[in-house]
Inverse folding.
């Protein structure tokens, strides 16, 4: 099973750094990571067309897990979903999880299972801290 993690932030540096961290900690060929931070002009902001382009580039992936940080990045992730073909929309998951912890947990879990619900659950629970 193939999984694409789509990382959205207003900052390309944030998604580039997160992508690099995850790639160094997991080595599965079944997980692709796309850094989609910033605008197409590499300015602060986000752009739904970057998401659509990544989904179209991935093509054969079984599912797309979308992680966004705040505000318009979330709105643009939702807008991108509406811009996709119907079969792509069925494999597109907006993950309600912290960008860093959620994407990391999803990548590690997706490299060990083909159960998308388990991957989503691990991502959603990743940000919970139990400070003593």
């Amino acid at each position: 099973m193939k999984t694409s993690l789509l990382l959205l932030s207003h900052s390309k540096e944030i998604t580039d750094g997160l992508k690099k961290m995850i790639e160094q900690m997991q080595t599965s060929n079944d997980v692709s990571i796309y850094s989609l931070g910033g605008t197409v002009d590499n300015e602060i902001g986000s752009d739904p067309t970057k998401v659509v382009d990544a989904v179209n580039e991935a093509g054969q992936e079984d599912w797309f897990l979308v992680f966004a940080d705040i505000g318009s990045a979330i709105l643009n992730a939702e807008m991108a979903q509406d811009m996709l073909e119907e079969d792509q929309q069925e494999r597109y998951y907006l993950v309600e999880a912290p960008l860093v912890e959620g994407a990391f947990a999803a990548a590690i879990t997706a490299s060990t299972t083909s159960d998308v619900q388990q991957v989503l659950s691990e991502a959603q629970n990743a940000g919970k801290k139990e400070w003593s």
About this structure: The first helix runs from residue 12 to 25. Strands lie at 3-8, 31-35, 63-68, 92-94.
